[in-house]
Write a structure and sequence with these properties.
5-stranded parallel beta sheet, single chain, 178 residues
Length: 178
């Protein structure tokens, strides 16, 4: 049996937030004070919801997807789990359905973590929920690395073992189980 760890990408493996904020500044948008505690892009940059969604989609379909930096110590641990312990990672990311963006994302993952660590990359539409994508792994108990509480809960509901990666905007999140 293959050793598999399920993982989101942005905010777990790659530092999407940092790259997006730099990109927004380059496009004339300034983050509000303490914006790193705000998940909602519209609130974080004091723009409309529609504009926020459009800018996220535009960024996610840009060349930037091939050049996001690793998040914190993700390179060290992914490479160690893969090379020393034989784990592979199935990445499920709500980035874009654009095929070129997916190629750039795979290129970025291969560059950061090696060409064999991520044999599965499933790209969902921008902002999409992950319930259906997690369904094939139902009741497997696999680890599910995620930074968005709602998607971590979806993994819990699917019988996975979620691990919520802490950020300023989710550090006070709690999951209540019955």
């Amino acid at each position: 049996m293959e050793k598999i760890i399920l993982t989101d990408c942005d905010g777990v493996l790659l530092n999407w937030e940092y790259a997006f904020c730099i990109w927004m500044e380059q496009h004339g948008h300034t983050q509000i004070e303490n914006g790193n505690f705000e998940y909602n892009i519209a609130k974080r940059f004091s723009i409309t919801e529609a504009t926020g969604k459009q800018l996220v989609k535009q960024f996610n379909e840009s060349a930037a997807m091939g050049f996001l930096p690793a998040l914190r110590d993700s390179r060290y641990y992914v490479k160690r789990l893969h090379e020393e312990h034989g784990y592979v990672f199935h990445c499920i990311t709500s980035m874009s359905l654009d095929s070129n963006a997916k190629k750039l994302r795979q290129m970025n993952l291969d560059k950061m973590f090696g060409p064999t660590a991520f044999p599965v990359l499933e790209c969902l539409d921008t902002g999409a929920d992950k319930d259906e994508a997690l369904a094939p792994y139902k009741d497997s108990g696999l680890f599910w690395l995620e930074d968005k509480l709602e998607n971590a809960v979806a993994g819990l509901d699917a019988g996975l073992t979620p691990i919520l990666i802490e950020h300023g905007w989710n550090m006070n999140s709690t999951i209540q189980t019955v």
